[in-house]
Design goal:
mainly alpha, 15 helices, globular, transmembrane, single chain, membrane, 368 residues, transmembrane helix
Length: 368
C-alpha cells in the first residue's frame, strides 16, 4: 500500500507530465469551451431539442430520427474534406478553425430565426442551419484539437507526450463544460433562447481566440493520415505488371513503409464491416434511447435528466477506455499477453456490451 508521501510524489510527477502552461493555449481553450458547450447543450441531444422546438402536436419521430442521423453522418464524412483542405490545399489549421467558428455562429443564427412562436420550425432556415452546424463540427474535430497540439511543438516534446498533454487540456475543458451544461441554466431554456445564448458565448470566445493570433505557433506542414493511401494507389496503377500494391513501391513512387501501412489498412476492412452493428446501436443511443428517456421522465425539465445520463455515459466510456488501455499496457510490459490479441478481446467485450445494451433497452420498453 502506498504511503501518503508516495501518493503526493506520484501526483506531482503526473502533474508535471501532463500539465503545461503556455499563453497561446488559453486563447484556444476559450474557443474549445464554446464549441463543447454547443455540442453538449445542442448537437449531442439534438433529438430532445427538436422535440422541444416542434412541440407535441407537430412532432414526428421518423423525421426527427432521419434528421439527427443525417447530421451526425454528414459531420463524420466532412472530416475527410477538412483534413484534405488543411494539408493539400495549404489552408492551414488556423484558417480552417476561423472558418468553422464563423460557420457555427451563422448556423446558430439561422437556428434562432428558424424557431417560431407557435412551436414550429421554419424548415427553409432550419435545414441549411443544421448543414452549417455539421460543417463546423467536422472542421472543429480535426483542426481545433490539432491546432491546440501545435502550440506544444516548440517545447521539443516527443510525439506521444505532446499529444497526451494537449489531450489533457481538451479533457479538462470537456469535463468543465459537461458539469456546467448539466447543472447550469441552459437546459431549461427554449430552443430560440438557447440559440441566442450560444451565439453570444461563441462570439465572445471567438473574439478571445483571435486576440491570441500573434502568440500562436503555426505549423507549415500538416500530417495527412489519408495521403499515403492516394500515393500508394496511384503508384500501384502506374506499375500494373507487379503484384498489386507492391507495384507502388516498385516504381519508386512511394516507400515500402507506406505500402505496408496501406496493406494493413485494407486488412481491417472486414473489421470495419463488423462495426455496422455498433454504429446502429450508437445511432439508437442518440435517437430512440433519448425518445424513450423522454417518455420515462415525468418532470417537465426532462432535458436536465437526459444531459445527466448522457454525461454519465460519456464518463463511463472515458473511464472504461483508459482503464482497459492501462491494463493492456501493464500486461504487455510484463510480457503476459500479446497486445494485438488483447485489443481484439477488448473489441469483442465492447460488442457484447452492445448486445446487452439492446436487451436492456428492449426490456425497459416492454415494461413501460
Amino acid at each position: 500500500m502506498m504511503k501518503p508521501i508516495q501518493v503526493l510524489r506520484w501526483c506531482r510527477e503526473k502533474f508535471q507530465y501532463y500539465v503545461v502552461f503556455t499563453t497561446s493555449i488559453f486563447f484556444i481553450l476559450a474557443l474549445v469551451f464554446s464549441y463543447k458547450l454547443v455540442e453538449k447543450t445542442f448537437l449531442d441531444i439534438l433529438m430532445t431539442r427538436l422535440t422541444d422546438a416542434w412541440g407535441e402536436d407537430n412532432y414526428d419521430l421518423r423525421t426527427v430520427v432521419i434528421i439527427v442521423n443525417l447530421q451526425e453522418g454528414t459531420a463524420a464524412v466532412l472530416v475527410l474534406l477538412f483534413v484534405y483542405a488543411a494539408d493539400v490545399m495549404h489552408i492551414g489549421r488556423f484558417k480552417t478553425v476561423v472558418f468553422s467558428a464563423t460557420v457555427c455562429i451563422i448556423g446558430l443564427m439561422l437556428n434562432k430565426r428558424a424557431a417560431r412562436d407557435d412551436n414550429t420550425l421554419n424548415l427553409r432556415l432550419f435545414y441549411p442551419a443544421l448543414g452549417l452546424m455539421a460543417l463546423a463540427q467536422a472542421a472543429q474535430r480535426v483542426n481545433l484539437e490539432g491546432f491546440l497540439d501545435d502550440q506544444l511543438r516548440p517545447m521539443g516534446l516527443d510525439n506521444e507526450r505532446r499529444k497526451r498533454r494537449s489531450k489533457f487540456w481538451w479533457t479538462v475543458v470537456s469535463f468543465a463544460v459537461a458539469v456546467f451544461a448539466g447543472f447550469g441554466p441552459l437546459p431549461r431554456l427554449h430552443f430560440e433562447e438557447l440559440a441566442l445564448v450560444l451565439i453570444s458565448v461563441m462570439g465572445v470566445c471567438f473574439f478571445v481566440f483571435l486576440l491570441g493570433f500573434k502568440r500562436y505557433n503555426f505549423v507549415p506542414k500538416i500530417e495527412n493520415p489519408f495521403k499515403d493511401v492516394g500515393i500508394v494507389v496511384h503508384g500501384a496503377i502506374s506499375n500494373r505488371n507487379v503484384e498489386w500494391l507492391d507495384k507502388a513501391a516498385a516504381g519508386g513512387n512511394c516507400s515500402g513503409e507506406q505500402v505496408r501501412g496501406v496493406k494493413l489498412l485494407l486488412k481491417i476492412i472486414p473489421l470495419w464491416c463488423c462495426f455496422l452493428t455498433f454504429s446502429l446501436v450508437s445511432a439508437s443511443g442518440s435517437t430512440f434511447f433519448f425518445n424513450e428517456a423522454m417518455d420515462l421522465t415525468n418532470d417537465h425539465n426532462y432535458i436536465n435528466a437526459i444531459l445527466l445520463f448522457s454525461n454519465l455515459s460519456r464518463l463511463v466510456q472515458f473511464a472504461a477506455s483508459h482503464a482497459s488501455s492501462f491494463v493492456i499496457r501493464k500486461l504487455e510490459e510484463r510480457k503476459k499477453c500479446n497486445r494485438q490479441k488483447m485489443e481484439l478481446v477488448r473489441i469483442g467485450a465492447g460488442m457484447i456490451c452492445c448486445l446487452l445494451c439492446c436487451v436492456t433497452a428492449s426490456e425497459t420498453a416492454k415494461r413501460r
